Amino acid sequence: MDTAASIRGYIRDELLVADASSLRDDTPLWGGVLDSVGLMQLISFIEESFGVEIGDDELTSAHFGTISAIASLVDRKVTAS
Amino acid sequence: MIVAAPPLLEWVSEEQAAFYEAVVGFARTLPREDVSALDREAAFARESWRRCGGFGIQGLPAPEEHGGGGADVTTTILALEALGYGCTDNGLVFSINAHMWTSVVPVWQFGTEEQKRRWLPGLCSGELIGCHAMTEPDAGSDPFSLTASAKRTPEGFRLNGRKTFITNAPVADVLIVFARTSEGLGPYGITAFVIPAGTPGMDVSGEIDKMGLRTSPMSEVSLDDCVVPESAVLGRVGRGGEVFQRSMEWERACIMASQIGLMRRTMDTCIAYARERRQFGQPIGKFESIADKIADMRVSIDAGRALVLRVGRLMDRGRDATLESAIAKLFVSEANVRLHLDAVQIHGGYGYTREFEIERALRDSVGGRIYSGTSEIQRRIIARRLGL
User: Fold this and answer.
1) Which one is catalytic: B242, B251, B324, B359?
2) Which terminal Cβ of chain B has fewer Cβ within 10 Å, N or C?
């Protein structure tokens, strides 16, 4: 499973987003799909599942605004490690 | 005397049920007669606090190596229900809950080994009192909009800001203060700091006079160039939102357990009164209008307990309980107010006086719809997880 699919699956299955069928990789996540608690759960999932650590300066809407942005950040970190 | 003890064995093990009764027995040894005076004076029962620590209440879920009891979440929940049932000082029980979920749990789960060694034994034993300072005058239901700042300095961090509605602050020995270290997304960019009371630049004052839970002290906290070392950071820089969220998860489950204990105590009082009080030649409990109210109390207690224990089971299995905690918090806090309004009604004119505990218990129950996330916020959490 690629990174984006894994993140999409977590949001759909664990964060219980009912309209997940319409969730696309470029759907804005913050303020619509995810609330504060959901965002914290998602970041915890990413750090544990991909073995990466998200830095304080990376916790921005630029990196966590969409599934594709998150996947891009995670892939870069995995490649670098 | 237990008049109508709801059974526990269908929910928990015999050992846990026995522990529940042991906590009830202990709680009944705490002073009962002067709680009305403490309520009038808004006074804190420090000696009872120490005795609860000595019994092992405050440290229950923390590891034994740090002075805790090593109990699982379910056992902890049962103990706090039992404490709420046996102890008539509802404000003290509330303060103990606040201390456990906003200082014991965060230091245990996010602290460095040094922080755990320094703080946990005292926080568990009852020697120390802790609290957290999150809420601000303009950041209540939206806590992550807080504006208190923590700027890096050569010595560590310099904190500035104002906090309000801080339970336990007037008597606290250590405070976990949340402040913004960067402009992060949503809950990020906030850092938690463990700060001993008396640290220069941190002032605890402006005690808040409350409608209920008056024996649980509350005040404001101001930070004016309060400098703390790097070693004061609890958890990771910018990740204080996770510390706060962990506290809320425990708090929403366990404070409601104590509310169920209170509801059970009030139901017992109502049953005894409905049997003893006679009107129109018979006990008032023979009137359906009275008996129905008490029957509804029992339904609320059993349903609330099931919801709270569900959270405990999920947490014990390492599962997320955000949705279930919100459901339990919403149901129990609302049921608690309804139950106490009915209890006042059952007691008639006597229930409206300060002669009976019912009046104080009603005032104490109202805060449950506000603290740890208002009922409106709980509904929002639930609705969001329904995709709404």
Assistant:
1) B251
2) N
